[in-house]
Design brief:
Helix content is about 0%, strand content about 55%. By secondary structure, it is mainly β.
Length: about 120
């Protein structure tokens, strides 16, 4: 089993940046597809970004050009650099380890980290 712990959330003004980090224990993340999801109040959890075994990245439209997902295999972490934040990015952000093949269903979740963007 893998344990995922997110960090780096907080309060930031619109236009600012945050860097989220997800530390994994129990398994080596280089062998897994990793993803970031988010859930805003009253909304369903939604995919933000994904990075596959070969480093291929996928982003949903609302973060393209602003967010960057990366993997640090030496530290066993996956990161999400978030730039040009808007109030619409306010949500709890979750790290997930997913299935290796499409549709990449999440197998494990972190506890989440709150990101709040003020206008």
């Amino acid at each position: 089993q893998v344990q995922l712990v997110e960090s780096g959330g907080g309060l930031v003004q619109a236009g600012g940046s945050l860097r989220l980090s997800c530390a994994a224990s129990g398994r080596t993340i280089s062998s897994y597809v990793m993803a970031w999801y988010r859930q805003a109040p009253g909304k369903q959890r939604e995919l933000v970004a994904r990075i596959t075994l070969d480093g291929t990245t996928t982003y949903t439209d609302f973060v393209k050009g602003r967010f960057t997902i990366s993997r640090d295999n030496a530290k066993n972490t996956v990161n999400l650099q978030m730039n040009s934040l808007t109030p619409e990015d306010t949500a709890v952000y979750y790290c997930a380890q997913t299935a290796v093949f499409p549709p990449f269903r999440p197998n494990y979740w972190g506890q989440g980290t709150q990101v709040t963007v003020s206008s």
